[in-house]
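User: I'm new to structure prediction. If I give you an amino acid sequence, what do you actually give back? Let's try with this one:
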Amino acid sequence: MTTATQNKNIIARILNINTSGEKGGRDLPLWRQLLLQILTIAIALEVMFPIMYIITLSFSSKTTRPSALELIPKEFSLVAYQQVMDRPTANPVTFTQLLTNSFFLSFGVGLVALLVAVSAAYAFSRFKFALRQVLMVLLFIPLLMPAVGLSAPLYLLLNQFRLFDCGNGITALEPIFSCAEGVTGKLVFNLRDSLWGVGIAMVASALPFAVWNLKGYLDTIPLDLEEAAAIDGADSNQIFFRIVLPLAVPQLAVTFFLGFIGHWQEFALSWLFLTKPENYTLAMTLYNMTGQYANAIPWNRFAAMAIIVALPVAITYIALQKYITSGLTTGAVKG
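Assistant: Good question. You get back a string of structure tokens that encode the predicted 3D arrangement of the chain. For your 335 residues, that looks like this:
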């Protein structure tokens, strides 16, 4: 055997070394591991590039966009964050109010959607009634459509509920009641132009996924537990609240946090429905900071606001990533 052949054999053996240390499963040669690691590093760099650019921009004290590409901050100035906290935009609304509005929508939508969805999912999972499968398919159809596609009918529906001051201490709630003929009432409240209306629209868009997600998990809970509780004298409410809900707590938490995360940065419905600055959210304010012309954008404050808006979502997802992943896969296979 020649020296060249021996060298080739040595190189081949090195590249095919199994460095994974796993006893079972398929061996992963060294060359494949190196190829996969190079690929994952390239993907990580591509993902982290815009994030690092925004972080660098947020620590700058200059409001203009940098002429050169900088990924490592040359200065650590917090002036942009201070300006955002003091006065986010020219609108007379504080950062605290914006944060409260965003938290109200995301937390409220997640909680209400969870309460409604767990009841509906339990009914679909345990009860046999007419048109059960048809209703499940109809519930699935909104998931095939973008949320903004449902905004027009929701806008028209919620805009019908308005409260008018007809004078003399008389109020009328349309479309149920109206002012006397010939009397033009003063608009006091419009459900569409309020955080409550936006919240209702968001709940409508969040319910289909929440019901399907919880229904798949409830199917995995053994029915024998409920039958045993019924034999011991438990009624339907006791079975639901004392047996089913405690067992479904992990998936309930996942469903709630998915609803919270998904609507924290909701922009389309809020921008379409809301017109009053005091009802704006953080995502709407971030868009308002762009202004009419690109040269007028305070880039450091824009970057600081983007980091502030994304930070709660990132922290929540990182903290619950293991539970979210396991919660989504649990119930995928019934058995």
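You can read the tokens as a compact description of the fold. Here is one thing that stands out. The chain has two domains: 3-58, 89-148+193-329.
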